[in-house]
Write a structure and sequence with these properties.
The chain is an alpha/beta fold and about 525 residues long. It contains 17 helices and 26 strands.
């Protein structure tokens, strides 16, 4: 149902500026049923959000937009006035982005209030943890919405999306769709960008989850301290009240610090620990082991006693992700054997995803694209590999450059072969990015004996070929950085590129070459003595 401009203006304490030749009364009564930041994608009775951008202010397009009204800031109104005056009424606020959450929630009927909302933040593991929770909730016969890096799903059905956390208008419209389709619970990744840019404004979370913090996004957040501060916003009042139940993994110093902050503020966080150094926690890992088939078995002590569970995903850190998921679902009353069994079967696109082409070594594609994540992935695979370990990796352009050398160093500290290659160069010179990663890897390689092999191969497909051809029985090859992504951004062009497809192709090519070699060898050995001597 549509609301009115007068109601929206009052909601965000805005001044309602009539269009040229329009009375204030006429502007007040205009109905609004949708809102968008994209002037080309406005629905009926739409409010156009004209925000300042990196290249231009959205108000530049306001007078020509097919909208019934515009919400903008004073700079945006000045642009409209200079273009002949606003051609439609303006909801004028000091910070239009900060107002979007409340406006969107009102326009779409406050859908989050009708849903059990679980938000997950952290540098690594958000996607995996939300997938685990989605599986557990669906096993409990609940209708579930999932929002995150790999896309959006409604009860397992994929819905198109572009951002880890959609902009506020898109998010509330999506939540309204979920509500209308009978969804009861939503699990969503909440990035630090989303928190800083008010994308989850107007959403009241029931449970807020913190996983970990390590170096990433320092192109957006000037320091780790500011990065941490952005993450803590999920645990503060976003919509008048903070999430009543915070779930904090205290395996790292940042998690312990956040738990202490919440405790000092008079709140009681649910804490999760899988490392002995973490200290006492609400949920503590008691024991874990890895079976021959790679399945991890774990037992944890929780509020209701001990809980045993299996983790189908490789990597000890996935024990932490799953225990956090178990703890978070416990806070919303979802428990039971069926829930744990469903979690044990979860596979996450591009997250420690095994590529099996019948080869005699392990090939894994993972999204790890920051130093700590690369270190954790390699350490896990090293512990579960009898042979050697290789990694194919690179760093993205137009992103935090200070993590490039550390990414290379983390790789060379564990792997026997490091193949430095292009990731998503974007507008930067690919060779320059590789050189920074390569320098970190070669310096770290000098500290090991024997030294690992470090090579620089720009073409990502060729780099994958090199590592796959290098592998032998019992080895592991990790292709890191892009995970589920199906494109490679070079300049302004997005080329189709899927690490999973390329690894499968390289394995197939390797198998064909080896079959041909065996066939040639067999033919040589089966030649008659006369034929052999004639040669």
């Amino acid at each position: 149902m549509a609301t009115t401009l007068h109601t929206l203006a009052e909601l965000v304490d805005a001044q309602l500026v009539p269009a040229v030749g329009q009375t204030a009364a006429a502007a007040n009564d205009i109905p609004v049923a949708s809102i968008s930041l994209n002037s080309k994608e406005l629905g009926e009775q739409a409010l156009f959000a004209a925000l300042p951008g990196t290249r231009a202010h959205g108000a530049k397009y306001a007078n020509d937009a097919a909208a019934v009204a515009v919400v903008t800031d004073p700079a945006g109104l000045d642009i409209m006035v200079q273009a002949g005056g606003p051609q439609r009424p303006v909801v004028l606020v000091d910070d239009a982005r900060a107002a979007l959450g409340a406006l969107s929630a009102e326009i779409y009927g406050h859908p989050a209030d009708d849903l059990t909302m679980i938000g997950v933040t952290g540098t690594s593991g958000k996607t995996t943890t939300t997938y685990l929770m989605e599986a557990g909730l669906m096993a409990a016969d609940l209708r579930v919405g999932l929002i995150g890096t790999t896309g959006t799903r409604i009860n397992g059905e994929k819905v198109p999306s572009h951002l880890t956390t959609p902009e506020a208008p898109d998010l509330h419209r999506l939540l309204a769709t979920m509500r209308d389709r009978g969804v009861t619970h939503v699990v969503m990744e909440v990035s630090s960008h989303a928190l800083e840019l008010h994308r989850v404004g107007g959403v009241a979370f029931d449970t807020a989850v913190f996983l970990n913090l390590s170096q990433d996004h320092l192109d957006f957040h000037p320091t780790m301290e500011e990065y941490f501060h952005a993450k803590t916003k999920l645990f503060q009042a976003i919509n008048g009240a903070a999430a009543p139940t915070p779930v904090i993994c205290i395996n790292d110093d940042w998690g312990r610090r956040l738990a202490d902050m919440l405790t000092v503020a008079g709140r009681t966080p649910v804490t999760v620990a899988t490392e002995a150094t973490a200290g006492a926690a609400t949920w503590e890992l008691i024991d874990d082991s890895v079976a021959d088939d790679g399945v991890q078995h774990a037992t944890a002590k929780g509020p209701d006693g001990s809980t045993s569970f299996d983790v189908g995903l490789p990597g000890r850190y996935n024990i932490a992700n799953e225990l956090v998921a178990i703890a978070a679902l416990h806070t919303v009353g979802v428990t039971g054997t069926a829930v744990l069994e469903a979690m044990a079967k979860v596979q996450v696109p591009g997250r420690m995803e095994r590529i099996d082409g019948g080869q005699d070594f392990l090939a894994v594609v993972d999204y790890a694209h920051k130093p700590a994540a690369i270190g954790a992935a390699l350490t896990t695979l090293r512990a579960q590999t009898n042979g050697r370990v290789a990694i194919v990796m690179g760093a993205g352009g137009d992103r935090d450059a200070t993590k490039r050398a550390p990414m290379g160093a983390e790789s060379a500290q564990v792997a026997d072969l490091v193949v430095v290659t292009d990731d998503n160069p974007r507008s930067e010179e690919p060779a320059a990015i590789r050189e920074q990663v390569f320098a970190g890897a070669t310096e770290a390689a000098k500290q090991r004996e024997p030294q690992p092999e470090v090579v620089n191969i720009g073409d990502r497909a060729e780099a994958i070929n090199y590592a796959i051809a290098w592998a032998r029985n019992g080895d592991t090859v990790l292709v890191a950085g892009k995970g589920h992504e199906t494109g490679q951004q070079v300049g302004d062009t997005l080329h189709h590129f899927d690490d999973r497809e390329e690894v499968a192709r390289a394995i197939s090519q390797r198998s064909a070459q080896r079959s041909a070699q065996r066939s040639t060898t067999h033919n040589d050995h089966s030649a008659s003595p006369q034929e052999g001597s004639a040669q």
